[in-house]
Amino acid sequence: MMSEGEEHGSLLEKINDKIHDKMHDYKHSSSSSSSDSDDDKKKSKKPKKKKLFGRKHSLHRVLGAGKAADLVLWRNKQTSGSILAGVTVIWMLFEGIGYHLLTFICHMLIVFLTVCFVWSNAASFINRSPPKFPEVILSEVQCLKFAHIVRKEINEAFYTLRNVASGKDLKTYLTSVGVLWFISIIGGCFSFLTLSYTIFLMAYTLPMLYEKYEDQVDVVGEKALIEIKKQYAVLDEKLLSKIPMLSDKKQH
Fold first, then answer.
1. Which among 28, 46, 61, 83 has the fewest CB atoms less than 10 Å away?
2. How far lies 45's CA from each of 39, 140, 150, in Å?
3. CA-to-CA distance for 188 and 200, rounded, in angstroms?
4. Confidence class of residue 240 from pLDDT cuts 50, 70 and 90?
5. Model's pTM, two decimal places?
6. Distances in whole angstroms, Cα of residue 39 to Cα of each of 25, 36, 66, 95, 98
7. DSSP conformation letters of 70-113
8. pLDDT per residue over 97-126, tens digit each?
9. Are residues 217 and 50 in contact, defined by beta-carbon separation less than 8 angstroms?
């Protein structure tokens, strides 16, 4: 039989072994948790992807987050496709067949008024309710708000034209001449109706395509902006800085 001292010694050894195992498990768990926290910190320190033109919000929010944004981003493909098809048909009527705008508007109004007139008079004979037309009344507040926005835009346009014409802003003058020259070239290649349809087609489809391939476009756009800035810096150093008017403005 074991003596009392030997039993006491074996009991102490078991307690020490258990304590050692507990300490080992605690160190392992703390090291794993610290590594996890380090990984989380590294993930949080990852740079966020830069959006095109420094955009901070989603494209849907930038476009107003309303029904117009839903149409442009093709949230409802059937509705957006129907609008695109309708505009395309109208463009083909005018451009392909040679239909005139004033004739088209008059014919559409004739058809609409004739259908409504016949329906309203024949409703009592066929036991159906006549069509109900909404009462459209523009409030004075809406008209004043619209007039205020238009007045503000027109005043800003006149202010810009005055600065350009008076020779106070050479940069704006060069930009205006460049834009007008580009528009004149485009206008010489297409008719006004085709140009309007092309602008509508681009405005109606490009946001949807951009949202679909946003990451790839942002990368290419960022590289393009960096290259444009480099080319502008070279142009500024070689040409713009030698123009007295621009150099004086930079000094001030």
1. 46
2. 10, 54, 46
3. 19
4. low
5. 0.56
6. 21, 5, 40, 62, 67
7. HHHTTSSHHHHHHHHHHHHHHHHIIIII---HHHHHHHHHHHHH
8. 877 878 888 999 999 999 988 888 887 787
9. no
